[in-house]
Design a protein that fits this description.
The protein has twelve helices and eight strands. A five-stranded parallel beta sheet has the order 3-2-1-4-5. Strands 6-7-8 form a three-stranded mixed beta sheet, covered by helices on one side. Helix content is 53%, strand content 13%.
Amino acid sequence: MKSVAIIGLGLMGGSVAKALKNKNPNIFIEAFDHNESALDLALDVGIIDQKLSNLEQINNLDQNSVDIIIIAVPVIESLQVYDAIKSLFNSNITITDTASAKLLISNYLEDKYSSPANIILSHPMAGSHNTGVGYADEAMFNNKKVLITELNNINEASEQKVSDLWKGLGAEVHKIDAKKHDEIMSYASHLPHVISYAVLSSIMTNPNKNITTFSAGGLKDFVRIGGSDPKMWTDIFLSNKESIVQAIDAYKDSLDNLKELFNDGDEKALQDFLTSIKEYKNSKF
Protein backbone atom coordinates (compact mmCIF):
# COMPACT_ATOMS: atom_id res chain seq x y z
CA MET A 1 0.00 0.00 0.00
CA LYS A 2 1.53 3.27 -1.18
CA SER A 3 -1.11 5.97 -0.78
CA VAL A 4 -4.13 6.55 1.47
CA ALA A 5 -6.65 9.36 1.84
CA ILE A 6 -8.43 9.87 5.16
CA ILE A 7 -11.66 11.82 5.59
CA GLY A 8 -12.03 12.87 9.22
CA LEU A 9 -8.92 13.35 11.34
CA GLY A 10 -10.19 12.88 14.87
CA LEU A 11 -9.06 10.18 17.27
CA MET A 12 -9.87 7.29 14.91
CA GLY A 13 -8.69 8.83 11.64
CA GLY A 14 -5.61 10.20 13.36
CA SER A 15 -4.79 6.83 14.90
CA VAL A 16 -5.11 5.11 11.52
CA ALA A 17 -2.74 7.69 10.01
CA LYS A 18 -0.26 7.37 12.87
CA ALA A 19 -0.37 3.57 12.79
CA LEU A 20 0.14 3.49 9.01
CA LYS A 21 3.11 5.86 9.25
CA ASN A 22 4.55 3.79 12.09
CA LYS A 23 4.36 0.64 9.97
CA ASN A 24 5.48 2.26 6.73
CA PRO A 25 7.13 5.72 6.95
CA ASN A 26 7.13 5.97 3.15
CA ILE A 27 3.35 5.68 2.74
CA PHE A 28 1.77 8.89 1.40
CA ILE A 29 -1.21 10.04 3.48
CA GLU A 30 -3.45 12.95 2.61
CA ALA A 31 -6.40 13.98 4.74
CA PHE A 32 -9.47 16.21 4.90
CA ASP A 33 -11.15 17.51 8.02
CA HIS A 34 -13.43 20.47 8.69
CA ASN A 35 -11.15 21.32 11.60
CA GLU A 36 -8.14 23.06 10.06
CA SER A 37 -6.19 22.92 13.31
CA ALA A 38 -6.46 19.13 13.36
CA LEU A 39 -4.93 18.98 9.89
CA ASP A 40 -2.17 21.40 10.88
CA LEU A 41 -1.32 19.37 13.97
CA ALA A 42 -1.25 16.10 12.00
CA LEU A 43 1.00 17.70 9.39
CA ASP A 44 3.30 19.17 12.04
CA VAL A 45 3.82 15.83 13.81
CA GLY A 46 4.27 14.00 10.52
CA ILE A 47 1.34 11.59 10.50
CA ILE A 48 -0.02 13.04 7.25
CA ASP A 49 1.85 14.39 4.23
CA GLN A 50 -0.75 16.67 2.68
CA LYS A 51 -3.89 18.55 3.64
CA LEU A 52 -7.00 18.47 1.46
CA SER A 53 -9.17 21.58 1.53
CA ASN A 54 -12.50 20.04 0.52
CA LEU A 55 -14.20 16.84 -0.54
CA GLU A 56 -14.05 17.87 -4.20
CA GLN A 57 -10.32 17.24 -4.01
CA ILE A 58 -11.14 13.68 -2.95
CA ASN A 59 -13.15 13.25 -6.15
CA ASN A 60 -10.15 14.40 -8.15
CA LEU A 61 -7.72 11.89 -6.66
CA ASP A 62 -5.75 9.82 -9.16
CA GLN A 63 -7.56 6.49 -9.29
CA ASN A 64 -4.37 4.71 -10.25
CA SER A 65 -2.24 6.04 -7.40
CA VAL A 66 -4.51 6.09 -4.30
CA ASP A 67 -5.11 2.67 -2.77
CA ILE A 68 -7.77 3.34 -0.13
CA ILE A 69 -10.03 6.13 1.09
CA ILE A 70 -10.89 5.78 4.79
CA ILE A 71 -13.99 7.63 5.99
CA ALA A 72 -13.52 8.26 9.72
CA VAL A 73 -16.47 10.48 10.58
CA PRO A 74 -19.71 9.85 12.57
CA VAL A 75 -22.31 7.58 10.98
CA ILE A 76 -24.88 10.16 9.91
CA GLU A 77 -22.20 12.56 8.65
CA SER A 78 -20.70 9.73 6.61
CA LEU A 79 -23.85 9.61 4.45
CA GLN A 80 -23.10 13.16 3.30
CA VAL A 81 -19.50 12.14 2.59
CA TYR A 82 -20.64 9.23 0.42
CA ASP A 83 -22.86 11.63 -1.53
CA ALA A 84 -19.94 14.00 -2.00
CA ILE A 85 -17.54 11.34 -3.36
CA LYS A 86 -20.01 9.34 -5.43
CA SER A 87 -17.94 9.88 -8.58
CA LEU A 88 -15.45 7.39 -7.09
CA PHE A 89 -18.01 4.62 -6.67
CA ASN A 90 -17.06 1.46 -8.59
CA SER A 91 -13.65 2.97 -9.35
CA ASN A 92 -10.19 1.50 -8.79
CA ILE A 93 -9.99 3.17 -5.37
CA THR A 94 -11.21 1.08 -2.46
CA ILE A 95 -13.42 2.92 0.05
CA THR A 96 -13.89 1.89 3.67
CA ASP A 97 -14.98 3.49 6.94
CA THR A 98 -14.69 3.20 10.72
CA ALA A 99 -18.32 3.77 11.78
CA SER A 100 -19.76 1.82 14.70
CA ALA A 101 -23.21 1.30 13.14
CA LYS A 102 -23.61 -0.33 9.73
CA LEU A 103 -27.23 -1.01 8.78
CA LEU A 104 -28.09 2.65 8.16
CA ILE A 105 -25.06 3.07 5.89
CA SER A 106 -25.56 -0.25 4.12
CA ASN A 107 -29.23 0.46 3.40
CA TYR A 108 -28.43 3.99 2.24
CA LEU A 109 -25.79 2.83 -0.21
CA GLU A 110 -28.03 0.04 -1.48
CA ASP A 111 -31.14 2.21 -1.92
CA LYS A 112 -29.40 5.23 -3.43
CA TYR A 113 -26.37 3.80 -5.21
CA SER A 114 -27.06 0.06 -5.71
CA SER A 115 -24.21 -0.97 -3.40
CA PRO A 116 -21.00 0.18 -5.10
CA ALA A 117 -18.65 -2.81 -5.29
CA ASN A 118 -15.54 -0.92 -4.19
CA ILE A 119 -17.03 0.00 -0.79
CA ILE A 120 -16.22 -2.41 2.05
CA LEU A 121 -17.47 -1.22 5.42
CA SER A 122 -15.32 -1.81 8.49
CA HIS A 123 -15.58 -1.19 12.22
CA PRO A 124 -12.41 -1.28 14.32
CA MET A 125 -13.35 -2.31 17.85
CA ALA A 126 -10.99 0.18 19.42
CA GLY A 127 -11.14 3.67 20.79
CA SER A 128 -10.99 5.90 23.83
CA HIS A 129 -13.14 8.35 25.75
CA ASN A 130 -10.56 10.96 24.67
CA THR A 131 -11.19 12.79 21.41
CA GLY A 132 -9.15 14.53 18.75
CA VAL A 133 -6.08 13.84 16.67
CA GLY A 134 -3.91 14.95 19.59
CA TYR A 135 -4.74 11.61 21.25
CA ALA A 136 -3.93 9.55 18.15
CA ASP A 137 -2.41 6.21 19.14
CA GLU A 138 -0.36 4.13 16.71
CA ALA A 139 -0.96 1.02 18.86
CA MET A 140 -4.75 1.45 19.02
CA PHE A 141 -5.50 -1.49 16.72
CA ASN A 142 -2.97 -4.01 18.08
CA ASN A 143 -4.75 -7.24 19.01
CA LYS A 144 -8.15 -5.59 18.50
CA LYS A 145 -11.01 -6.93 16.40
CA VAL A 146 -12.17 -5.27 13.19
CA LEU A 147 -15.58 -6.23 11.79
CA ILE A 148 -15.89 -6.06 8.01
CA THR A 149 -19.32 -5.71 6.41
CA GLU A 150 -19.85 -6.40 2.73
CA LEU A 151 -22.48 -4.66 0.64
CA ASN A 152 -24.63 -6.63 -1.80
CA ASN A 153 -22.03 -6.24 -4.55
CA ILE A 154 -18.52 -7.34 -3.68
CA ASN A 155 -15.22 -6.51 -5.31
CA GLU A 156 -12.92 -9.22 -3.95
CA ALA A 157 -9.80 -7.13 -4.58
CA SER A 158 -11.27 -4.28 -2.51
CA GLU A 159 -12.28 -6.66 0.25
CA GLN A 160 -8.77 -8.09 0.39
CA LYS A 161 -7.26 -4.61 0.45
CA VAL A 162 -9.39 -3.59 3.44
CA SER A 163 -8.63 -6.82 5.25
CA ASP A 164 -4.90 -6.37 4.64
CA LEU A 165 -5.11 -2.77 5.88
CA TRP A 166 -6.39 -3.77 9.32
CA LYS A 167 -4.29 -6.89 9.63
CA GLY A 168 -1.25 -4.78 8.83
CA LEU A 169 -2.12 -2.57 11.81
CA GLY A 170 -2.22 -5.59 14.10
CA ALA A 171 -5.96 -6.26 14.14
CA GLU A 172 -7.94 -9.49 13.88
CA VAL A 173 -10.47 -9.26 11.03
CA HIS A 174 -13.95 -10.83 11.04
CA LYS A 175 -16.76 -10.64 8.46
CA ILE A 176 -20.31 -9.88 9.57
CA ASP A 177 -23.54 -8.67 7.94
CA ALA A 178 -24.86 -5.20 8.76
CA LYS A 179 -27.95 -6.24 10.73
CA LYS A 180 -26.11 -8.71 12.94
CA HIS A 181 -23.32 -6.17 13.44
CA ASP A 182 -25.72 -3.57 14.81
CA GLU A 183 -27.50 -6.08 17.03
CA ILE A 184 -24.18 -7.16 18.55
CA MET A 185 -22.94 -3.59 18.97
CA SER A 186 -26.14 -2.58 20.73
CA TYR A 187 -25.08 -4.89 23.59
CA ALA A 188 -21.29 -4.97 23.25
CA SER A 189 -20.77 -1.21 23.04
CA HIS A 190 -23.85 0.96 22.86
CA LEU A 191 -25.85 -0.34 25.86
CA PRO A 192 -22.89 0.05 28.27
CA HIS A 193 -22.68 3.71 27.26
CA VAL A 194 -26.45 4.11 27.71
CA ILE A 195 -26.18 2.65 31.22
CA SER A 196 -23.20 4.84 32.12
CA TYR A 197 -25.05 7.96 31.00
CA ALA A 198 -28.19 6.84 32.88
CA VAL A 199 -26.31 6.15 36.12
CA LEU A 200 -24.62 9.55 35.94
CA SER A 201 -27.98 11.18 35.21
CA SER A 202 -29.57 9.53 38.26
CA ILE A 203 -26.68 10.68 40.47
CA MET A 204 -26.77 14.19 38.98
CA THR A 205 -30.47 14.59 39.82
CA ASN A 206 -30.21 13.00 43.29
CA PRO A 207 -30.52 15.65 46.04
CA ASN A 208 -27.83 13.89 48.12
CA LYS A 209 -24.71 15.74 46.98
CA ASN A 210 -22.37 13.48 48.98
CA ILE A 211 -22.56 10.66 46.43
CA THR A 212 -19.73 12.01 44.30
CA THR A 213 -17.76 13.12 47.36
CA PHE A 214 -17.57 9.62 48.79
CA SER A 215 -17.68 7.53 45.62
CA ALA A 216 -15.00 4.84 45.38
CA GLY A 217 -12.97 3.59 42.42
CA GLY A 218 -15.65 1.14 41.31
CA LEU A 219 -18.15 3.86 40.47
CA LYS A 220 -15.52 6.00 38.77
CA ASP A 221 -14.44 3.05 36.60
CA PHE A 222 -18.06 2.26 35.79
CA VAL A 223 -19.00 5.77 34.67
CA ARG A 224 -15.72 6.52 32.86
CA ILE A 225 -17.27 6.04 29.42
CA GLY A 226 -19.94 8.58 30.35
CA GLY A 227 -17.21 11.13 29.64
CA SER A 228 -17.17 10.20 25.96
CA ASP A 229 -17.87 12.73 23.21
CA PRO A 230 -21.60 13.67 23.37
CA LYS A 231 -21.75 14.58 19.66
CA MET A 232 -20.31 11.23 18.61
CA TRP A 233 -22.58 9.24 20.90
CA THR A 234 -25.70 11.16 19.90
CA ASP A 235 -24.87 10.12 16.33
CA ILE A 236 -24.29 6.48 17.34
CA PHE A 237 -27.46 6.24 19.42
CA LEU A 238 -29.63 7.66 16.63
CA SER A 239 -27.89 5.57 13.97
CA ASN A 240 -28.63 2.29 15.76
CA LYS A 241 -31.69 3.30 17.74
CA GLU A 242 -33.84 0.27 16.89
CA SER A 243 -31.33 -2.28 18.18
CA ILE A 244 -30.40 -0.10 21.16
CA VAL A 245 -34.03 0.30 22.26
CA GLN A 246 -34.45 -3.47 22.13
CA ALA A 247 -31.30 -3.86 24.25
CA ILE A 248 -32.61 -1.27 26.73
CA ASP A 249 -35.90 -3.16 27.02
CA ALA A 250 -34.02 -6.40 27.73
CA TYR A 251 -31.89 -4.61 30.32
CA LYS A 252 -35.01 -3.18 31.98
CA ASP A 253 -36.38 -6.72 32.23
CA SER A 254 -33.17 -7.77 34.00
CA LEU A 255 -33.49 -4.85 36.40
CA ASP A 256 -37.11 -5.76 37.11
CA ASN A 257 -36.05 -9.33 37.82
CA LEU A 258 -33.43 -8.12 40.30
CA LYS A 259 -35.89 -5.70 41.88
CA GLU A 260 -38.36 -8.54 42.38
CA LEU A 261 -35.66 -10.67 44.01
CA PHE A 262 -34.82 -7.79 46.37
CA ASN A 263 -38.45 -7.25 47.30
CA ASP A 264 -39.03 -10.97 47.90
CA GLY A 265 -36.16 -11.02 50.36
CA ASP A 266 -35.29 -14.61 49.41
CA GLU A 267 -31.58 -14.76 50.20
CA LYS A 268 -30.99 -18.10 48.49
CA ALA A 269 -32.80 -17.14 45.30
CA LEU A 270 -30.87 -13.87 45.09
CA GLN A 271 -27.52 -15.52 45.76
CA ASP A 272 -28.24 -18.27 43.24
CA PHE A 273 -29.07 -15.64 40.63
CA LEU A 274 -25.90 -13.64 41.33
CA THR A 275 -23.83 -16.83 41.29
CA SER A 276 -25.18 -17.78 37.87
CA ILE A 277 -24.28 -14.32 36.56
CA LYS A 278 -20.79 -14.54 38.02
CA GLU A 279 -20.23 -17.97 36.44
CA TYR A 280 -21.40 -16.64 33.06
CA LYS A 281 -19.11 -13.61 33.38
CA ASN A 282 -16.11 -15.75 34.29
CA SER A 283 -16.72 -18.10 31.36
CA LYS A 284 -17.21 -15.37 28.73
CA PHE A 285 -15.19 -12.33 29.76
